[in-house]
Amino acid sequence: MSRRELWADGPLRAAWAARDWPTLIRRYRALAGLSQTAFGELIGVDQGYVSRLERGRARVTSEVVVARFIEGLSVPIELGGVRASSGDPEWAPTPELRERIAHAHTVGRTDLRTADWIGVVLAQHRRAEDEVGGRALWPVVRSQLDTVTQLLPGTSGQAADRLMLLAAEHAHWLSWVAWQAERRGPALAWIDLAHGWAVDGGHTDMASWAQRVRSYYSLTYGDPVRALRTAEAARFAGPRPLSPAAEAVAVHQAAMAAAQLGERDRAGRLADEARELALRAPDEGERPGWLYWLDPVRARLQAADTAYACQRWAEAAEGFREALPGLEGFPRDHAYYRTRLDDAVRRA
């Protein structure tokens, strides 16, 4: 594994953003298989200093030493400007960010290798969020988005469209983390940006997904009427047909909203349709990157979730029981659905 490939690791990037030197050094050494001596050689210090840093008995206060870390560990360009996090992110999008996007289609050329790399690590962040926490990765993803948008004014045509999709994926991730932190205003601002950028770039699946997320926000905030309206709109997000996976999650969201409105027959029909659509794309490569999780097990769980929302307890219990063995590698999700199974069994 190259030094650059090491930096696809979410916990390593989060440690860099927090300037958590003990965690950074331990994680980097574990990933690279380096001794403290070999690590010290990379950044031009002796083994004793590395040991003190790793044990938290020394601190890095000099920008010169930080620069040695950046050069010696091949810290990616999009992380070079990340400063130590205060623990309380600046949640809302900035005017400068919007200004860069506004100039996305000027004539120009750019090297897309940086953008391709950022796309790879964003996919890793999606998977790392359960382990690291979105808050810890916030400054990293925010810095990545800055790097993407800074490329846009010098890019045009299909390359600009690719960057618009990458920017929209980042904005969606930031929206989700803000919502989990109960920062609802910034969460809505980010998801609106994600939707607009997806539409501008011609990315129908992402435009639909952003609307689906907005529907989810409305539903969890207690507004099923608006949630249903938005979920239905997500099925018709652009001039091109949706992929089966993207349509599946939009239909499932509509089913959940219909269930909360008491329209149980409609919810059941939509749930069946959503599962059928999801099963058309059983392999991860057939789905958009942000829907990596929508495998047949998750499709079954979504159907069971709709049955649960419709108070069809026996049907929900059967679905949860059938799908739970497929979640053994996901302890948090397994615990959540185990609780739902137990509740459905009790109510049946």
Question: Could you explain the architecture of this structure?
Answer:
With 348 residues, this protein is mostly helical. Among the domains are: 3-80, lambda repressor-like DNA-binding domains (434 Repressor (Amino-terminal Domain), Orthogonal Bundle); 85-181. The chain has 19 helices and no strands. It has helices spanning 3-6, 10-18, 21-32, 36-43, 47-54, 63-72, 77-80, 95-102, 113-132, 134-151, 157-180, 184-201, 204-220, 224-234, 244-260, 264-278, 296-309, 313-323, 331-347. α9 packs antiparallel against α10 (134-151). The longest helix has 24 residues, at 157-180.
Tell me the layout of helices and strands.
Blueprint: H1 3-6, H2 10-18, H3 21-32, H4 36-43, H5 47-54, H6 63-72, H7 77-80, H8 95-102, H9 113-132, H10 134-151, H11 157-180, H12 184-201, H13 204-220, H14 224-234, H15 244-260, H16 264-278, H17 296-309, H18 313-323, H19 331-347
Helix pairs in contact: 2-3, 2-10, 4-5, 9-10, 9-11, 10-11, 11-12, 11-13, 12-13, 13-14, 13-15, 14-15, 15-16, 15-17, 16-17, 17-18, 18-19
Distance between the terminal alpha carbons, to the nearest Å?
A: 52 Å
Helix content: over 70%
Mean pLDDT level: 87
Number of helices: 19
Structural class: mainly alpha
Assess the beta-strand content as a share of residues: under 5%
Radius of gyration based on Cα positions: 22 Å
Give the overall shape.
globular
Features:
single chain; 348 residues; mainly alpha; 434 Repressor (Amino-terminal Domain); 70% helix; globular
